[in-house]
Specification:
Layout: H1 8-16, H2 18-22, H3 30-33, E1 35-43, E2 50-54, E3 62-63, E4 70-75, E5 81-86, E6 93-98, E7 105-106, E8 113-119, E9 125-132, E10 135-142, E11 149-150, E12 159-165, E13 171-177, E14 185-191, E15 198-199, E16 206-211, E17 217-222, E18 232-236, E19 240-245, E20 250-254, E21 259-263, E22 269-274, E23 287-289, E24 301-305, E25 308-312, E26 318-323, E27 332-336, E28 346-350, E29 355-359, E30 365-370, E31 381-383, E32 395-399, E33 404-408, E34 416-421, E35 429-430, E36 445-449, E37 454-458, E38 470-473, E39 480-486, E40 489-496, E41 504-509, E42 529-534, E43 541-542, E44 550-555, E45 561-566, H4 576-579, E46 585-590, E47 598-599, E48 608-616, E49 618-623, E50 626-628, E51 631-632, E52 638-646, E53 653-654, E54 671-676, E55 680-685, E56 693-698, E57 701-703, E58 706-708, E59 713-716, E60 726-733, E61 740-747, E62 751-754, E63 761-771, E64 784-789
Parallel strand pairs: 49-52, 51-56, 58-64
Antiparallel strand pairs: 1-2, 1-48, 2-3, 4-5, 5-6, 6-7, 8-9, 9-10, 10-11, 12-13, 13-14, 14-15, 16-17, 17-42, 18-37, 19-20, 20-21, 21-22, 23-24, 24-25, 25-26, 27-28, 28-29, 29-30, 31-32, 32-33, 33-34, 35-38, 36-37, 36-41, 38-39, 39-40, 42-43, 44-45, 45-46, 46-47, 49-50, 52-54, 53-55, 55-56, ...
């Protein structure tokens, strides 16, 4: 077991300044316009997942953890600490550590499974995803542990994950799956109070948001460009019930509208035909499109409305084709026999009557089966291909109330038997021998979701090689079963599901025709690309464009770069996504347009994932033999990172005599971070090369910057209270020109108020940090000026 060690000089500095380090990390203003520090990421290069750190160039890759599995690192806004997930105690729990891997501490201990923690900009809270069973919520916890706050309490069917704080710390972005009951994943925002939930993407394929430091934009990953298996949003239609296809359009009927809609391959909806008025009564209107067999004109559309069957010509003219007085007033399903065992006739299943009719091209109907004594309702039906043994040529009819698919043999001897079962089964339909995509939609199978008002789509290539099997969608379960004929017996399996909120109504495959090309085999799966958008979801722009998986983006603190993981270098490409075996590398690119994509981690023997930036106020390059820049000016609470590039060894050491900080000896490729809480001027020296010196200047602040005599000004000299053994000294220069004199000395608080005590004019303030144990102090900060007017 590797125990974290700290150089003796650094340990001394840590003990001397323990009070500051014990305080919660404070947000560095560099989140808005600062420098980029180190990167942390996860890698399995030692055989288990561990947290690593490296410089933005990719140099200095160093493991920070070794005990158990450790992953999903996130750096505090001041750059001094890392929160991560560890399994070292048997379950996923949150831990924190210093940026150098020391002081590892567990902060959660509960029954939920924690992932993807992120540090709030003010350093006080850590947000994370917590899963219990099938329910995953976004939680917040104090950085030092304590009671968990559930920000997105909801039903177990919602899966909230991957939170990201806005730079101001008021809002969280996260992704949520199945929140709309559709199995989709979209990006949402919510206030840290758990209120004002807002959905900002709607493709059903978006996740892993990361907020830009300008608080105006987000970067995220999306599968919208991937022909993934499974349901995705295709079109919005109020209460869709039935789907059918002509050569040029998808047609949809509605439960509460006297119309038939036309939906283009891009999802655009228009009215195809207006039906005779029923007052838009709530009826399940089913449709079927003639394949041009048995004397029925090809392309004509037939719709059931109560006891009538309506005929619609290709130009939308509606006439009554037949009336069957014994039908029920709703739920009457239509299909066409395309096998020939029922004489290529239209077949009508009288839903609530549980009766079956054949209808010829003249409109004459014949009752061939009555299952009213067997089941209470029959609906979605189709004639099985002859190869579907032992029910080849039979009509398979679904009965959702007794979860049964019935097989009805063709005339002259009509019999019925229970062929298979599926919970709340709504329909039985067969996969075509050649699956085709509907025009430009890249999808070939469509499902009507009545309650949510959506048409869902599946890619056509998911059904290649499955021709002749039957799908059995469940209305209330919204999952889809699959029946396969194997050696004269039917094998039942789950094809997909559940899709979402009930009710699932009729489904349909796109037919093959000149407008609908055959689906092509293969193609990538699980392919993400990186997108950028505004914080409202507007102006979505794609940044990566390739056939590989680019994911888990994170914005750099200075707003100029985006780091992400990509499997594009895996020698097993293409195809490793399907098996989940891809090897990722850490990449960086321009946040402006995605240019300059560069591999940083360069280790194909390991899977490098989940990158995050360290935020610091300033970066100093320590080379032979200078600090560059020689003067840096972090704000109060900001961190400075010294990046050692050598080639000689160097130190970054407090030269004030206070013993405030000391990096210890650092070789090329290593780094050191220290957080400056208090205003002052801090001299820095390399103890190995004393000619190497630099200065860290932390300002005093006053607000407002001007005002009349009665104005109450607030003078702030530290982002934290003074630790034990230290005090703050503050001086003032008044308009009388007497120079700086003591104003507040031996202070342990962070600020004080001030009202003009020497009339109008310019006042100046400066402050320092002093060690009461040895009397040494920093230099005074640069003066800050206020103007007092009459």
């Amino acid at each position: 077991m590797r125990m974290p060690k700290l150089a003796s000089a650094a340990l001394t500095a840590t003990l001397v300044f323990a009070g500051l380090l014990a305080l919660p990390p404070v947000r560095a203003e560099a989140v808005a316009a600062g420098a980029n520090g180190l990167m942390v990421f996860t890698s399995n290069r030692t055989g288990t997942r561990q947290v690593y750190v490296m410089q933005p160039s990719g140099a200095g890759q160093t493991a920070l953890t070794s005990l158990g599995e450790n992953f999903d690192p996130s750096v505090s806004a001041d750059g001094t600490k890392v929160v991560f997930v560890s399994t070292r105690d048997g379950t996923n729990e949150l831990y924190t550590m210093a940026i150098d891997g020391t002081i590892q501490k567990r902060i959660t201990n509960n029954a939920i499974t924690e992932t993807h923690p992120v540090w709030a900009p003010n350093g006080m809270l850590i947000a994370f995803a917590g899963q219990s069973g099938t329910d995953s919520d976004i939680y917040a916890v104090h950085w030092n542990g304590g009671v968990l706050q559930d920000l997105t309490p909801n039903t177990p069917t919602f899966f909230d994950a991957n939170p990201s704080w806005s730079p101001g710390g008021l809002t969280l972005a996260f992704d949520s799956t199945n929140r709309q009951g559709l199995g989709e994943t979209n990006i949402y925002t919510i206030l840290k109070t758990g209120t004002q939930l807002t959905q900002i993407t709607h493709t059903g394929t978006d996740s892993n948001p990361s907020w830009a430091p300008d608080n105006k934009n987000l970067v995220f990953e999306s599968r919208r460009d991937d022909p993934i298996p499974g349901p995705m949003m295709f079109a919005s239609v109020s209460r869709p019930v039935s789907i059918g296809f002509t050569d040029t359009a998808m047609l949809v009927t509605q439960e509460t509208k006297d119309q038939v809609l036309s939906v283009s391959s891009s999802g655009a909806v228009s009215i195809f035909a207006t039906l005779p008025p029923t007052g838009n009564a709530q009826l399940e209107r089913y449709l079927a499109v003639s394949p041009g067999l048995g004397g029925f004109p090809a392309g004509y559309v037939y719709v059931t409305v109560r006891k009538d069957i309506l005929q619609i010509s290709p130009n939308g003219t509606v006439t009554t084709f037949a009336t069957i007085t014994d039908l029920s007033n709703s739920n009457n399903f239509l299909t066409f026999d395309q096998v020939g065992t029922f004489g290529y006739k239209m077949i009508l299943v009288g839903g609530q009557n549980s009766t079956v009719y054949t209808i010829d091209s003249t409109g004459a109907s014949t009752l061939i089966a009555d299952l009213s004594g067997v089941t209470s309702e029959l609906e979605g039906s189709e004639v099985a291909p002859l190869s579907f043994s032992p029910y080849g040529g039979d009509l398979l009819a679904a009965s959702k109330f007794d979860n049964t698919i019935y097989a009805i043999t063709p005339p002259p001897t009509v019999t019925s038997s229970a062929a298979a079962s599926w919970s709340s089964v709504e329909q039985a339909l067969f996969v075509p021998p050649t699956p085709c995509n509907y025009g430009t939609s890249s999808s070939g199978f469509f499902v009507a979701m009545d309650t949510t008002g959506q048409i869902m789509k599946f890619p056509g290539n998911q059904f290649i090689g499955q021709g002749g099997t039957a799908l059995t969608p469940g209305e209330t379960t919204t999952d889809i079963g699959q029946l396969t004929s194997v050696g004269g017996s039917l094998v039942t399996s789950t094809f997909w599901g559940p899709i979402g909120t009930p009710d699932l109504e009729a489904s349909a495959f796109a037919p093959c025709n000149p407008n609908n090309p055959p689906a092509t085999a293969g193609g990538p799966t699980n392919i993400h690309e990186i997108y950028e958008m505004s914080s409202t979801g507007a102006n979505q722009v794609r940044l990566t464009t390739n056939t590989f998986d680019d994911s888990h983006p994170a914005w750099s603190p200075n707003g100029q770069s985006i780091v992400f993981e990509s499997d594009r270098d895996d020698p097993n490409q293409p195809g490793c996504e399907a098996g989940g075996t891809c090897i990722n590398e850490i990449y960086v690119m321009s946040a402006l347009n995605g240019s300059g994509q560069t591999n940083l981690s360069n280790n194909l023997a390991a899977d490098d994932t989940a990158p995050d930036w360290e935020t610091v106020s300033a970066v100093v390059n320590v080379a032979d033999f200078t600090f560059s820049p020689a003067v840096v000016k972090p704000k109060q609470g900001g961190a400075v990172l010294w990046a050692f590039t050598g080639p000689s060894d160097h130190t970054a050491t407090d030269n004030s005599g206070m013993g405030l900080f000391d990096s210890g000896t650092k070789s090329a490729g290593s780094s050191y971070v220290f957080q400056f809480q208090a205003a002052g001027s801090y001299p820095v020296v390399c103890t190995i090369h004393p000619q190497m010196t630099a200065t860290v200047k932390v300002p005093t602040t006053v607000v407002p910057s001007s005002g009349p005599l009665a104005t109450v000004f607030t003078v702030t000299w530290s982002a934290a209270f003074a630790p034990v053994g230290y005090v703050f000294d503050v001086q003032i220069s008044r308009p009388n020109g007497s120079g700086f004199v003591d104003w507040k000395t031996n202070q342990t608080v962070k600020f004080a108020t001030f009202t003009a005590d020497a009339g109008v004019g310019a006042y100046q303030f400066q402050a320092r940090l002093r060690n009461t144990n040895n009397g040494f102090a920093s230099g005074y900060s640069l003066p800050v000026t206020i103007t007092v007017t009459p």
